[in-house]
Amino acid sequence: MCNKPLILITNDDGYAAAGIKALARTVADIADIYVVAPDGARSGAACAITSSVPVSYRELKAQNDYPSGVRLFACSGTPVDCVKLAWDNILPRRPDLLLSGINHGDNASISAHYSGTMGAVFEGCMKGIPSIGLSLYLQRGQRYEDYPVSDDTLAAIARLCEQVITEGLPIDTCLNINLPVSDVFKGWRVCRQARGRWEAEWATASNPHGVKAYWLTGVFNDLEPQSDDTDFAALRAGFASIVPTTIDMTAYGAMEHVNKLTS
Amino acid sequence: MCNKPLILITNDDGYAAAGIKALARTVADIADIYVVAPDGARSGAACAITSSVPVSYRELKAQNDYPSGVRLFACSGTPVDCVKLAWDNILPRRPDLLLSGINHGDNASISAHYSGTMGAVFEGCMKGIPSIGLSLYLQRGQRYEDYPVSDDTLAAIARLCEQVITEGLPIDTCLNINLPVSDVFKGWRVCRQARGRWEAEWATASNPHGVKAYWLTGVFNDLEPQSDDTDFAALRAGFASIVPTTIDMTAYGAMEHVNKLTS
Predict the structure, then answer these.
(1) What is the dotted CATH code of the domain comprising B6-195+224-261?
(2) Which residue of A has its CA nearest to B122?
(3) Subunit contact B46:A49, Cβ cutoff 8 A
(4) Residue-level pLDDT at B32
Protein backbone atom coordinates (compact mmCIF):
# COMPACT_ATOMS: atom_id res chain seq x y z
CA MET A 1 0.00 0.00 0.00
CA CYS A 2 1.38 3.33 -1.01
CA ASN A 3 0.82 6.41 1.13
CA LYS A 4 0.10 9.76 -0.45
CA PRO A 5 2.84 12.30 0.17
CA LEU A 6 2.55 14.03 3.56
CA ILE A 7 2.82 17.82 3.73
CA LEU A 8 3.32 19.69 7.02
CA ILE A 9 2.05 23.25 6.84
CA THR A 10 2.76 26.01 9.35
CA ASN A 11 3.16 29.80 9.44
CA ASP A 12 3.75 32.70 11.81
CA ASP A 13 0.41 34.48 11.40
CA GLY A 14 -1.48 31.71 13.20
CA TYR A 15 -3.72 28.88 12.01
CA ALA A 16 -6.67 31.23 11.40
CA ALA A 17 -4.84 33.46 8.89
CA ALA A 18 -6.08 33.65 5.31
CA GLY A 19 -2.68 32.78 3.85
CA ILE A 20 -2.27 29.39 5.52
CA LYS A 21 -5.78 28.34 4.52
CA ALA A 22 -5.06 29.27 0.89
CA LEU A 23 -1.87 27.23 1.06
CA ALA A 24 -3.69 24.20 2.48
CA ARG A 25 -6.31 24.39 -0.28
CA THR A 26 -3.57 24.69 -2.91
CA VAL A 27 -1.93 21.37 -2.09
CA ALA A 28 -4.94 19.45 -0.75
CA ASP A 29 -5.18 17.33 -3.91
CA ILE A 30 -1.58 16.21 -4.00
CA ALA A 31 -0.96 15.12 -0.40
CA ASP A 32 -2.21 14.34 3.06
CA ILE A 33 -2.12 17.63 4.94
CA TYR A 34 -1.20 18.28 8.58
CA VAL A 35 -1.41 21.89 9.70
CA VAL A 36 0.49 22.56 12.93
CA ALA A 37 0.52 26.31 13.43
CA PRO A 38 0.66 28.90 16.21
CA ASP A 39 -2.61 29.70 17.98
CA GLY A 40 -2.13 33.38 17.17
CA ALA A 41 0.22 35.86 15.51
CA ARG A 42 3.97 35.26 15.89
CA SER A 43 5.31 37.76 13.38
CA GLY A 44 9.01 38.44 13.80
CA ALA A 45 9.57 35.23 15.79
CA ALA A 46 12.54 34.24 13.60
CA CYS A 47 14.03 30.90 14.75
CA ALA A 48 13.00 31.58 18.36
CA ILE A 49 12.30 28.57 20.54
CA THR A 50 10.35 28.44 23.79
CA SER A 51 12.54 27.16 26.58
CA SER A 52 11.52 29.02 29.76
CA VAL A 53 7.91 27.78 29.80
CA PRO A 54 6.31 24.60 28.46
CA VAL A 55 4.23 24.67 25.29
CA SER A 56 1.01 22.88 24.53
CA TYR A 57 -1.10 22.10 21.49
CA ARG A 58 -4.62 20.92 20.70
CA GLU A 59 -6.34 19.46 17.68
CA LEU A 60 -9.09 21.61 16.20
CA LYS A 61 -11.92 20.81 13.84
CA ALA A 62 -10.73 22.21 10.51
CA GLN A 63 -12.89 25.21 9.69
CA ASN A 64 -14.76 26.00 6.52
CA ASP A 65 -11.87 27.64 4.65
CA TYR A 66 -9.65 24.60 5.16
CA PRO A 67 -10.10 21.76 2.69
CA SER A 68 -11.77 18.63 4.01
CA GLY A 69 -9.48 15.95 5.37
CA VAL A 70 -6.92 18.37 6.78
CA ARG A 71 -5.74 17.60 10.31
CA LEU A 72 -5.41 20.93 12.15
CA PHE A 73 -3.39 21.57 15.33
CA ALA A 74 -2.94 24.89 17.18
CA CYS A 75 0.18 25.37 19.28
CA SER A 76 1.02 27.86 22.04
CA GLY A 77 4.64 28.22 20.91
CA THR A 78 6.67 29.73 18.11
CA PRO A 79 6.70 28.55 14.47
CA VAL A 80 9.91 26.58 15.19
CA ASP A 81 8.22 24.97 18.21
CA CYS A 82 5.37 23.94 15.88
CA VAL A 83 7.75 22.10 13.57
CA LYS A 84 9.58 20.44 16.46
CA LEU A 85 6.30 19.35 18.07
CA ALA A 86 4.91 18.07 14.79
CA TRP A 87 8.09 16.11 14.09
CA ASP A 88 8.36 14.44 17.50
CA ASN A 89 4.74 14.16 18.60
CA ILE A 90 2.08 14.75 15.95
CA LEU A 91 2.95 13.54 12.45
CA PRO A 92 2.10 9.91 11.59
CA ARG A 93 5.18 9.58 9.37
CA ARG A 94 8.10 11.55 8.01
CA PRO A 95 6.77 14.47 5.96
CA ASP A 96 7.70 14.77 2.29
CA LEU A 97 7.48 18.56 2.31
CA LEU A 98 7.13 21.45 4.74
CA LEU A 99 5.34 24.62 3.66
CA SER A 100 5.25 27.80 5.72
CA GLY A 101 2.99 30.78 4.93
CA ILE A 102 1.57 32.32 2.90
CA ASN A 103 2.87 35.17 5.03
CA HIS A 104 1.09 38.49 5.20
CA GLY A 105 4.03 40.69 4.10
CA ASP A 106 7.29 39.89 2.32
CA ASN A 107 10.32 38.13 3.72
CA ALA A 108 12.76 39.11 1.01
CA SER A 109 16.37 40.23 1.57
CA ILE A 110 17.50 40.30 5.22
CA SER A 111 13.91 40.15 6.47
CA ALA A 112 14.28 36.37 6.15
CA HIS A 113 16.33 36.58 9.35
CA TYR A 114 13.47 38.05 11.41
CA SER A 115 10.74 35.98 9.83
CA GLY A 116 8.86 33.37 11.82
CA THR A 117 7.66 32.01 8.47
CA MET A 118 11.27 31.37 7.46
CA GLY A 119 12.21 30.24 10.99
CA ALA A 120 9.89 27.27 10.54
CA VAL A 121 11.44 26.61 7.12
CA PHE A 122 14.97 26.61 8.55
CA GLU A 123 13.81 24.19 11.24
CA GLY A 124 12.35 21.86 8.62
CA CYS A 125 15.59 22.08 6.63
CA MET A 126 17.62 21.22 9.76
CA LYS A 127 15.50 18.08 10.09
CA GLY A 128 16.15 17.11 6.48
CA ILE A 129 12.62 17.93 5.25
CA PRO A 130 12.40 19.72 1.86
CA SER A 131 11.05 23.06 3.09
CA ILE A 132 9.56 26.10 1.38
CA GLY A 133 8.53 29.47 2.81
CA LEU A 134 6.00 31.61 0.96
CA SER A 135 5.30 35.27 1.61
CA LEU A 136 3.27 37.95 -0.11
CA TYR A 137 4.96 41.25 -0.97
CA LEU A 138 2.31 43.70 0.29
CA GLN A 139 2.69 47.46 0.60
CA ARG A 140 2.13 48.92 4.06
CA GLY A 141 -1.58 49.01 4.85
CA GLN A 142 -2.48 46.34 2.28
CA ARG A 143 -4.21 43.26 3.67
CA TYR A 144 -3.92 39.69 2.40
CA GLU A 145 -7.70 39.49 2.37
CA ASP A 146 -7.86 42.35 -0.14
CA TYR A 147 -4.92 41.17 -2.28
CA PRO A 148 -5.18 37.38 -2.29
CA VAL A 149 -2.70 35.33 -4.27
CA SER A 150 -4.11 34.67 -7.74
CA ASP A 151 -5.38 31.23 -8.73
CA ASP A 152 -2.73 30.72 -11.42
CA THR A 153 -0.02 31.62 -8.89
CA LEU A 154 -1.44 29.03 -6.51
CA ALA A 155 -1.45 26.50 -9.37
CA ALA A 156 2.23 27.28 -10.06
CA ILE A 157 2.96 26.75 -6.35
CA ALA A 158 1.24 23.36 -6.45
CA ARG A 159 3.33 22.34 -9.49
CA LEU A 160 6.54 23.45 -7.78
CA CYS A 161 5.59 21.49 -4.64
CA GLU A 162 5.13 18.34 -6.73
CA GLN A 163 8.53 18.94 -8.35
CA VAL A 164 10.22 19.37 -4.96
CA ILE A 165 8.54 16.26 -3.54
CA THR A 166 9.81 14.29 -6.56
CA GLU A 167 13.27 15.83 -7.03
CA GLY A 168 14.11 16.99 -3.51
CA LEU A 169 16.34 19.95 -2.63
CA PRO A 170 20.14 20.04 -2.22
CA ILE A 171 21.50 19.27 1.24
CA ASP A 172 20.91 21.97 3.89
CA THR A 173 18.99 24.03 1.32
CA CYS A 174 15.45 25.39 1.55
CA LEU A 175 13.49 27.88 -0.56
CA ASN A 176 12.46 31.42 0.33
CA ILE A 177 9.63 32.41 -2.03
CA ASN A 178 8.12 35.87 -2.22
CA LEU A 179 5.09 36.59 -4.37
CA PRO A 180 4.12 39.92 -5.94
CA VAL A 181 0.57 41.19 -5.74
CA SER A 182 -0.66 40.39 -9.23
CA ASP A 183 -3.70 39.09 -11.07
CA VAL A 184 -1.57 36.86 -13.28
CA PHE A 185 1.43 34.65 -12.60
CA LYS A 186 4.29 36.14 -14.61
CA GLY A 187 6.78 33.39 -13.73
CA TRP A 188 9.49 32.33 -11.26
CA ARG A 189 12.85 34.08 -10.89
CA VAL A 190 15.54 32.14 -9.05
CA CYS A 191 17.64 34.84 -7.46
CA ARG A 192 19.84 35.86 -4.55
CA GLN A 193 19.00 37.67 -1.32
CA ALA A 194 19.22 41.44 -1.89
CA ARG A 195 21.57 43.45 0.33
CA GLY A 196 19.43 45.77 2.36
CA ARG A 197 18.97 47.54 5.62
CA TRP A 198 16.09 48.52 7.87
CA GLU A 199 16.33 52.16 8.97
CA ALA A 200 14.46 54.63 11.22
CA GLU A 201 13.13 51.69 13.15
CA TRP A 202 11.42 53.22 16.17
CA ALA A 203 8.29 55.25 16.73
CA THR A 204 8.19 56.80 20.18
CA ALA A 205 5.14 56.96 22.41
CA SER A 206 4.50 57.50 26.09
CA ASN A 207 2.47 54.91 27.88
CA PRO A 208 -0.32 55.99 30.31
CA HIS A 209 2.21 55.85 33.15
CA GLY A 210 4.48 58.40 31.48
CA VAL A 211 7.15 55.86 30.52
CA LYS A 212 8.64 56.34 27.08
CA ALA A 213 7.85 53.32 24.91
CA TYR A 214 9.22 52.38 21.52
CA TRP A 215 7.23 50.71 18.75
CA LEU A 216 9.20 48.87 16.12
CA THR A 217 8.61 50.18 12.62
CA GLY A 218 11.13 51.12 9.94
CA VAL A 219 11.82 51.81 6.30
CA PHE A 220 13.56 49.19 4.17
CA ASN A 221 16.49 50.44 2.13
CA ASP A 222 17.50 48.22 -0.82
CA LEU A 223 21.28 48.77 -0.95
CA GLU A 224 21.60 47.58 -4.55
CA PRO A 225 18.51 48.81 -6.40
CA GLN A 226 20.41 48.66 -9.71
CA SER A 227 21.04 44.89 -9.50
CA ASP A 228 18.72 42.69 -11.54
CA ASP A 229 19.52 39.33 -9.90
CA THR A 230 18.06 39.95 -6.42
CA ASP A 231 14.74 38.97 -4.87
CA PHE A 232 13.59 42.57 -4.72
CA ALA A 233 14.48 43.11 -8.38
CA ALA A 234 12.33 40.10 -9.29
CA LEU A 235 9.43 41.35 -7.18
CA ARG A 236 9.64 44.87 -8.60
CA ALA A 237 9.49 43.36 -12.09
CA GLY A 238 6.36 41.43 -11.14
CA PHE A 239 7.95 37.97 -10.87
CA ALA A 240 7.76 35.51 -8.00
CA SER A 241 11.21 35.32 -6.40
CA ILE A 242 12.82 32.09 -5.21
CA VAL A 243 15.98 32.40 -3.14
CA PRO A 244 17.67 29.01 -2.58
CA THR A 245 18.66 29.47 1.05
CA THR A 246 21.19 27.57 3.13
CA ILE A 247 21.26 26.86 6.84
CA ASP A 248 25.08 26.65 6.66
CA MET A 249 25.96 30.25 7.46
CA THR A 250 29.72 29.74 7.25
CA ALA A 251 31.30 32.61 5.29
CA TYR A 252 33.72 30.39 3.39
CA GLY A 253 35.10 33.37 1.46
CA ALA A 254 36.12 35.10 4.71
CA MET A 255 38.26 32.27 6.11
CA GLU A 256 41.57 33.74 4.96
CA HIS A 257 40.82 37.21 6.33
CA VAL A 258 39.84 35.81 9.72
CA ASN A 259 42.86 33.50 9.81
CA LYS A 260 45.05 36.58 9.41
CA LEU A 261 43.26 38.36 12.25
CA THR A 262 44.06 35.51 14.62
CA SER A 263 47.64 34.75 13.56
CA MET B 1 40.20 65.42 19.38
CA CYS B 2 40.22 61.67 18.88
CA ASN B 3 37.54 59.50 20.47
CA LYS B 4 38.37 56.12 21.90
CA PRO B 5 36.73 53.26 20.01
CA LEU B 6 33.15 52.61 21.06
CA ILE B 7 32.03 49.06 21.83
CA LEU B 8 28.38 48.08 22.13
CA ILE B 9 27.91 44.98 24.30
CA THR B 10 24.75 42.92 24.56
CA ASN B 11 23.70 39.32 25.20
CA ASP B 12 20.66 37.08 25.63
CA ASP B 13 21.16 36.10 29.28
CA GLY B 14 20.36 39.62 30.52
CA TYR B 15 22.53 42.46 31.80
CA ALA B 16 23.02 40.80 35.21
CA ALA B 17 24.63 37.63 33.82
CA ALA B 18 28.21 36.76 34.74
CA GLY B 19 29.29 36.40 31.10
CA ILE B 20 28.41 39.90 29.96
CA LYS B 21 30.16 41.44 32.96
CA ALA B 22 33.32 39.44 32.20
CA LEU B 23 33.14 40.64 28.60
CA ALA B 24 32.76 44.28 29.67
CA ARG B 25 35.77 43.98 31.98
CA THR B 26 37.79 42.37 29.19
CA VAL B 27 37.52 45.29 26.79
CA ALA B 28 37.17 48.16 29.29
CA ASP B 29 40.72 49.36 28.69
CA ILE B 30 40.52 49.53 24.92
CA ALA B 31 37.22 51.36 24.37
CA ASP B 32 34.27 53.32 25.67
CA ILE B 33 31.67 50.72 26.62
CA TYR B 34 27.90 50.87 26.24
CA VAL B 35 26.03 47.83 27.51
CA VAL B 36 22.47 47.62 26.14
CA ALA B 37 21.11 44.25 27.17
CA PRO B 38 17.81 42.54 27.98
CA ASP B 39 16.44 43.02 31.50
CA GLY B 40 16.28 39.24 31.95
CA ALA B 41 16.93 35.93 30.20
CA ARG B 42 16.11 35.72 26.47
CA SER B 43 17.74 32.40 25.62
CA GLY B 44 16.58 31.01 22.30
CA ALA B 45 15.35 34.41 21.08
CA ALA B 46 17.23 34.06 17.77
CA CYS B 47 16.67 37.12 15.55
CA ALA B 48 13.21 37.69 17.03
CA ILE B 49 11.94 41.26 17.10
CA THR B 50 9.15 42.71 19.23
CA SER B 51 6.42 44.13 17.04
CA SER B 52 3.12 43.46 18.81
CA VAL B 53 3.91 45.49 21.95
CA PRO B 54 6.19 48.48 22.51
CA VAL B 55 9.54 48.06 24.23
CA SER B 56 11.19 50.29 26.79
CA TYR B 57 14.62 50.71 28.33
CA ARG B 58 16.19 52.43 31.31
CA GLU B 59 19.71 53.39 32.30
CA LEU B 60 21.06 51.63 35.40
CA LYS B 61 23.93 52.40 37.68
CA ALA B 62 26.61 49.94 36.61
CA GLN B 63 27.03 47.42 39.40
CA ASN B 64 30.18 46.26 41.12
CA ASP B 65 31.12 43.56 38.63
CA TYR B 66 31.00 46.01 35.74
CA PRO B 67 34.12 48.12 35.19
CA SER B 68 33.85 51.80 36.08
CA GLY B 69 32.80 54.13 33.29
CA VAL B 70 30.49 51.64 31.60
CA ARG B 71 27.11 53.02 30.55
CA LEU B 72 24.52 50.33 31.30
CA PHE B 73 21.00 50.09 29.82
CA ALA B 74 18.39 47.38 30.44
CA CYS B 75 15.76 46.76 27.78
CA SER B 76 12.41 44.97 27.88
CA GLY B 77 12.86 43.48 24.41
CA THR B 78 14.89 40.84 22.61
CA PRO B 79 18.64 40.98 21.93
CA VAL B 80 17.90 42.25 18.40
CA ASP B 81 15.65 44.96 19.86
CA CYS B 82 18.57 45.97 22.10
CA VAL B 83 20.85 46.50 19.11
CA LYS B 84 18.17 48.40 17.18
CA LEU B 85 17.40 50.63 20.19
CA ALA B 86 21.07 51.27 20.89
CA TRP B 87 21.71 52.18 17.25
CA ASP B 88 18.78 54.58 16.85
CA ASN B 89 18.35 55.99 20.35
CA ILE B 90 21.17 55.35 22.82
CA LEU B 91 24.68 55.34 21.35
CA PRO B 92 26.47 58.71 21.12
CA ARG B 93 28.22 57.72 17.88
CA ARG B 94 28.60 54.81 15.46
CA PRO B 95 30.09 51.83 17.35
CA ASP B 96 33.40 50.38 16.20
CA LEU B 97 32.52 46.90 17.42
CA LEU B 98 29.56 44.91 18.73
CA LEU B 99 30.14 42.09 21.22
CA SER B 100 27.43 39.68 22.34
CA GLY B 101 27.87 37.24 25.21
CA ILE B 102 29.64 35.59 26.81
CA ASN B 103 26.73 33.17 26.52
CA HIS B 104 26.04 30.53 29.11
CA GLY B 105 26.15 27.48 26.80
CA ASP B 106 27.54 27.01 23.29
CA ASN B 107 26.13 28.31 20.04
CA ALA B 108 28.12 26.08 17.73
CA SER B 109 26.77 24.35 14.61
CA ILE B 110 23.07 24.99 13.87
CA SER B 111 22.45 26.30 17.38
CA ALA B 112 23.60 29.66 15.99
CA HIS B 113 20.16 29.85 14.36
CA TYR B 114 18.29 29.69 17.69
CA SER B 115 20.72 31.84 19.62
CA GLY B 116 19.72 35.27 20.91
CA THR B 117 23.43 35.91 21.39
CA MET B 118 23.99 35.42 17.66
CA GLY B 119 20.72 37.18 16.80
CA ALA B 120 22.22 40.38 18.18
CA VAL B 121 25.40 39.70 16.21
CA PHE B 122 23.49 39.26 12.94
CA GLU B 123 21.66 42.51 13.66
CA GLY B 124 24.95 44.34 14.20
CA CYS B 125 26.29 42.84 10.97
CA MET B 126 23.19 44.00 9.07
CA LYS B 127 23.91 47.53 10.29
CA GLY B 128 27.52 47.31 9.09
CA ILE B 129 29.05 47.05 12.58
CA PRO B 130 31.92 44.54 12.96
CA SER B 131 30.16 42.06 15.26
CA ILE B 132 31.31 39.11 17.35
CA GLY B 133 29.31 36.59 19.38
CA LEU B 134 31.00 34.68 22.21
CA SER B 135 29.61 31.59 23.90
CA LEU B 136 30.95 29.10 26.42
CA TYR B 137 30.72 25.40 25.60
CA LEU B 138 29.35 24.05 28.89
CA GLN B 139 28.10 20.55 29.53
CA ARG B 140 24.53 20.24 30.77
CA GLY B 141 24.32 21.22 34.42
CA GLN B 142 27.56 23.24 34.37
CA ARG B 143 27.22 26.90 35.35
CA TYR B 144 29.22 29.82 34.00
CA GLU B 145 29.89 30.91 37.58
CA ASP B 146 31.67 27.60 38.26
CA TYR B 147 33.53 27.44 34.94
CA PRO B 148 34.47 31.04 34.19
CA VAL B 149 36.46 31.87 31.08
CA SER B 150 40.18 31.89 31.95
CA ASP B 151 42.13 35.13 32.14
CA ASP B 152 44.40 34.28 29.23
CA THR B 153 41.36 33.46 27.10
CA LEU B 154 39.90 36.86 27.98
CA ALA B 155 43.24 38.46 27.06
CA ALA B 156 43.15 36.68 23.68
CA ILE B 157 39.61 37.98 23.17
CA ALA B 158 40.76 41.54 23.90
CA ARG B 159 43.60 41.19 21.35
CA LEU B 160 41.19 39.86 18.72
CA CYS B 161 38.79 42.75 19.38
CA GLU B 162 41.60 45.24 18.81
CA GLN B 163 42.49 43.47 15.57
CA VAL B 164 38.87 43.55 14.36
CA ILE B 165 38.51 47.23 15.27
CA THR B 166 41.66 47.97 13.25
CA GLU B 167 41.22 45.60 10.30
CA GLY B 168 37.44 45.25 10.13
CA LEU B 169 35.56 42.21 8.85
CA PRO B 170 34.54 41.33 5.27
CA ILE B 171 31.21 42.66 4.06
CA ASP B 172 28.11 40.98 5.58
CA THR B 173 30.39 38.81 7.75
CA CYS B 174 30.40 38.44 11.54
CA LEU B 175 32.15 36.01 13.89
CA ASN B 176 30.62 33.17 15.90
CA ILE B 177 33.10 32.28 18.66
CA ASN B 178 32.71 29.35 21.02
CA LEU B 179 35.05 28.81 23.94
CA PRO B 180 35.94 25.51 25.60
CA VAL B 181 35.99 25.21 29.39
CA SER B 182 39.73 25.33 30.02
CA ASP B 183 42.27 26.78 32.42
CA VAL B 184 44.59 27.76 29.60
CA PHE B 185 44.00 29.30 26.19
CA LYS B 186 45.12 26.71 23.66
CA GLY B 187 44.54 28.94 20.61
CA TRP B 188 42.00 29.94 17.94
CA ARG B 189 40.71 27.63 15.23
CA VAL B 190 38.98 29.29 12.29
CA CYS B 191 36.49 26.68 11.13
CA ARG B 192 33.13 26.00 9.58
CA GLN B 193 29.74 25.35 11.12
CA ALA B 194 29.35 21.63 11.87
CA ARG B 195 26.39 19.80 10.35
CA GLY B 196 24.24 18.67 13.22
CA ARG B 197 20.75 17.97 14.43
CA TRP B 198 18.81 18.34 17.66
CA GLU B 199 16.88 15.16 18.48
CA ALA B 200 14.43 13.89 21.16
CA GLU B 201 13.47 17.47 21.81
CA TRP B 202 10.47 17.26 24.12
CA ALA B 203 9.95 16.25 27.73
CA THR B 204 6.30 15.73 28.56
CA ALA B 205 4.59 16.87 31.73
CA SER B 206 1.01 17.48 32.82
CA ASN B 207 0.22 20.88 34.24
CA PRO B 208 -1.94 21.17 37.42
CA HIS B 209 -5.02 21.47 35.21
CA GLY B 210 -4.34 18.14 33.55
CA VAL B 211 -3.26 19.61 30.23
CA LYS B 212 -0.29 17.90 28.62
CA ALA B 213 2.63 20.31 28.39
CA TYR B 214 5.89 19.98 26.50
CA TRP B 215 9.25 21.28 27.71
CA LEU B 216 11.90 21.84 25.10
CA THR B 217 15.04 19.81 25.72
CA GLY B 218 17.00 17.64 23.29
CA VAL B 219 20.21 15.85 22.47
CA PHE B 220 22.61 17.32 19.93
CA ASN B 221 23.81 14.93 17.26
CA ASP B 222 27.00 15.97 15.43
CA LEU B 223 26.42 14.54 11.94
CA GLU B 224 30.10 14.62 10.99
CA PRO B 225 32.05 13.69 14.11
CA GLN B 226 34.97 12.53 11.94
CA SER B 227 35.56 15.95 10.37
CA ASP B 228 38.38 18.02 11.83
CA ASP B 229 37.49 21.39 10.32
CA THR B 230 34.23 22.09 12.19
CA ASP B 231 33.50 24.19 15.25
CA PHE B 232 32.68 21.13 17.33
CA ALA B 233 35.93 19.44 16.30
CA ALA B 234 37.84 22.52 17.48
CA LEU B 235 35.96 22.60 20.78
CA ARG B 236 36.45 18.89 21.40
CA ALA B 237 40.19 19.39 20.83
CA GLY B 238 40.22 22.21 23.40
CA PHE B 239 40.53 25.13 20.96
CA ALA B 240 38.39 28.24 20.75
CA SER B 241 36.36 28.03 17.53
CA ILE B 242 35.72 30.98 15.23
CA VAL B 243 33.18 30.51 12.46
CA PRO B 244 33.16 33.43 10.01
CA THR B 245 29.43 33.73 9.50
CA THR B 246 27.49 35.47 6.74
CA ILE B 247 24.08 37.12 6.81
CA ASP B 248 23.71 36.35 3.09
CA MET B 249 21.97 33.00 3.28
CA THR B 250 21.70 32.54 -0.48
CA ALA B 251 22.65 28.96 -1.41
CA TYR B 252 24.64 29.95 -4.51
CA GLY B 253 25.57 26.32 -5.22
CA ALA B 254 21.90 25.35 -5.44
CA MET B 255 20.88 27.87 -8.12
CA GLU B 256 21.12 25.42 -11.00
CA HIS B 257 19.10 22.71 -9.23
CA VAL B 258 16.33 25.15 -8.37
CA ASN B 259 16.33 26.64 -11.86
CA LYS B 260 15.65 23.13 -13.20
CA LEU B 261 12.78 22.64 -10.73
CA THR B 262 11.06 25.76 -12.06
CA SER B 263 11.66 25.34 -15.79
Answers:
(1) 3.40.1210.10
(2) A113
(3) yes
(4) 97
